[in-house]
Design goal:
Chain A has 19 helices and four strands. Chain A is mainly alpha-helical. Chain C is flat.
Amino acid sequence: MRLIIRRITDKAFTCLTGTSIVLLTLVLVIILGPMVWRGAKAVIFKDTIEFRKMQLDLYNRGSSEDLNTEIAEAKNVRAVVYEIINKFKHGIDTEELIDKSKQIYRQFGKELRYKGITSEEYQKIRSLARDLRDRLQAAFESNDKKIIKENIDYVLQYRRNEYFVDTTAAEFFTLAEDFYKTIENIDLNKRQEYAASLQQIEEVIFQLLGPKPDEPLPALTMERYGATRWDLAVKLLDKLLWSQQWIQKEAGQPLVKIRFSRAEEFAGTKLESLFGYINNNFDKMLKPEFRFYWQYFIDDSTPGHYFGGVGPEILGTLLLTLLAMLFVFPLGVISAAYLVECASDNIAVRIIRMCINTLAGVPSIVFGLFGLAFFILFFIPLFGGPSKPCVLAASLTLAVLTLPVMIRASEEAIRSVPQAYKEASLGLGASRFSTLVKVTLPAALPGILTGLILSLSRVAGETAPILFTGAVALGPLPKSLFDPTRTLSYGSYDIAVGDRLAMLVPHQQYGMVVTLVLLILCLNALAIILRAKVFRKLKGG
Amino acid sequence: MLAKGREKMLMQKGNIKMLISALQTLQDKKETNALSTVEMKDKNNKVAEEENKKCNCAVVEARNFGFYYGSTMGVKNITMEVHPCSVTAIIGPSGCGKSTFLRSINRINDLIPHIRTEGVMMVNGHNVYDKNTNLVNLRQQVGMVFQEPNPFAKSIFDNVAYGPRLQGINIRSKLQQIVEESLKGAALWDEVKDDLKKSALALSGGQQQRLCIARALATKPDILLMDEPCSALDPIATGKIEDLIDKLQRDYTIVIVTHNMQQAARVSERTAFFCLGELIEYDSTAKIFRNPSKKQTEDYVTGRFG
Amino acid sequence: MNNTLESWRLRPAAEKSQSLVLTPLEDLKGFIAHHLGKFLLFLITCSSVIAVFLIFFFVIRQSLPFLTKFSLTEFLATKSWYPEASEPKFGALSLIVGSLYVTMVALVFAVPTGILAAIFLSDIVSFKVRAFVKPVIEILAAIPSVAYGFFAVLVLAPWMQTKWGFTTGTNALNASIVLSIMALPTVISVAEDSISAIGRELREASYALGATRFETLFKVVIPAAHSGIIAAIVLGMMRAIGETMVVWMASGNANQIPSPWWNLSQSVRTMTATIAGDMGETPKDSPHYWSLFAIGVVLLIMTFLLNIISEYFLASSKKKTGRS
């Protein structure tokens, strides 16, 4: 019996350990999977004509001829939308109508002056026109369809009046007619609701299609274009076709969100056809195309990363890491050579080793503090440089951070060179220094390079040390070593929490992080391949 | 079990008898060769005379030499002379200090920490354990070939040219000449002359060992130390290297440590028998194998132990 | 044969017989070169020592103005951290507790998983599976902390809020989970090293007496490797305490000690997040500025002590297994 219990415990334990590994793999997939999937959308996606417009304007990419033809085509399709909305507005936006009628009256008044008529006639016609205007105003403001019909009919009587025909005043009548046609089927009490809804709709259409063709361009770049991505456009379309409201289903219960079809909301009105039209002609209005936006990795971004890519960030990361490697490589290799070749087990060497281990354990933010306190406030000014966050300070800080990693990897590589190599070289009459330089180090070089690449990948991902020593979120490319720079790591942090704008463009957020992760994973893969090659070489090749 | 032992001994004795007869013919050959060599040398001028001078005195001489690392003894009380232009073999069971002694000759043992020596080790008339020994020159004059072939991870050319380059020879044509001569001297030239840029690691085991010999020859040493050079090689490669040793013996003093008694009998003129760090007997090969004076030697060569 | 003899003659025409004796000048040159070279290499190697010294010196130097003006006990023992108030108060207790709290919870997740995984890798699977699993752990170790923070804020936090109904998605639990994932590779690799180093003899002895694998591992191997495993835990703890970006993004940054103490859904604030968050907005050479360096000193001392402890355990484990 006891044996069975022991066997079961054994099996259970084995399963448990296996579970932990499965858990780990799962965690990795959960973390990387969605991120890479969403990040890939920054580079591979369906774009719209708005995107192509933006690319042409900001980055000079694409042929303007083709684009212009496309824009013209889309314009025709979109014009219908604007027309429907305008017409509907005439029935809803009473203020606008009243303004328009006042405007027509004024215009007509001016025209009259140049007509060359007697002042009596002038007064008569003018007062008539005023009357029409007031009647129209009454019609516009009233909620009672009877009154409206009265006033409109009254106005329309004068349509064929000789004074008004072929003048600006004729617009009174078109206005009246349109108005009447529009409000025929509207429930006038709902005008406020319609107005509010219409405003939402217009906003969505602005986000979808950008500014109207005849409007002046907005100041912000992000508002100059409509939806640049198809997935975003589809989401906006949904927002257009369906409205969401909070309804209290039962007293005392929390509010529940319910969707309403806007088409139903505007049923019977002129606007109803809008939704069907947009739905059916959506792709003609936006002209989606599949896009492989590899320039994501070289483009600069507009402020807030709304448009564009991560080019400067990649450059900044590479600049910092390569500089740091430049500082740390000789220090690390020489220290490792000393520790392997010349060091005897005395107290000095033990202190050195302890310090290397201490360095490895210092938290990265403390390195940032050190970089600030030492490099920026003391060291660089000592040589006459400016005392502010810059590329030089950041890369020096990163170099100190990665020194223990470099020393450990180099030491391992140099130690693994077989003793026979050194003996053969010494036996041929080489001094110990020559042996080190001509035989040992070249033989250890692949291992040292692996260590270098691993250090590189670690440094590329570090954010805390560069927070106050050289990284910024916005700014131009550094022109000298004494300027700060943007990096992938700090940019990822900033775009994830700091930037409210960035929430609107999740693909940009994920894109930056995934670029960083992919860069690091590629470097690691390179190191692994190199290590395997070294392994094969040493085993016999 | 005793019967088997006796059988073994008988076989060994039979083998040795064959060996000895072979040896004698070889020895005769060598004498005639040596004679003709001497005649040839007489025909040349200064070179020959200098060589004669050299050939008359001991090249490596150990007097009461002892070697200790840490608290362990490597060898002690070794007194022996190695004659020039000859092959001297050192045999003995594992751990008896043969390699330690060999490696003391060119001070490659210095890599071991905490070493201590006693007595005198003279090479070409100078005590190498003297404080003011020029180690670089010493190791250029005393070449070494190791147990495992250990070519550098460079091309064949760079491997052989490594030593001369250290000496400061940088002219391409001179280096090429030296490399060619060394490879010919190591009987490897014909096999690799087409592609000297090939990596040395791509050669077979036997070729690599001959490359190591060529590399050692390139510094033009007087003495060649060989530490079990064939132990990692197959019989065919071993045979080639033994032929090579035979040829080299005319111009170099060779000291070879070997586990293989038959090999010692084949190639050497004098043999030293070490056991547990001490030199038991040192005499001509024929005597050691045919008629050793010490019982220990006889026990070892007849296979009673080791 | 005569011809071949000639061709074998490699002897030089005695260009210069190189002396085996060093001239005094050569001896002196060699001596100087050897010792000078060794000394130069030693100096360069001392760069690590210099770096450590500089770090301690400069960070402590920048914190001294704070430590001299404000009371140390108040700094370490009170909870009110109001550095920008008109009467600034610098009680860092909740920050210190916050760091330790998040680290401990992370260890609760990471240690069992890590040790089980280490056992799995060292004892239970073949080399082929091992070669497949090792990259998984290496990738987990390679992912930068910003990416983990990203995951914590944009994926884990909303999920916590919607699925589990937390008031806020950025809280101690969120930070602890992600920290444990980050500490796992360290724990696994060090623990696996020390478990593997035990060698086959001990295991074979136990199996030969009829023990199951579970019993062998639990009663023989793990006790034998206990110092290495403790070192692994301490190193994991060091990693978690020193982590900045993840806790800054995911812990909620609320200056409080969770009450009740087991309520993980509350936000906390760690030392590292405080330094990272406040430094950008703090004017230089103000008490607030110096206090941040003081927090840095506390962090330094903590990680230094943990380092020493882990060194001790690693050394003792190496002594037992006899590895160098």
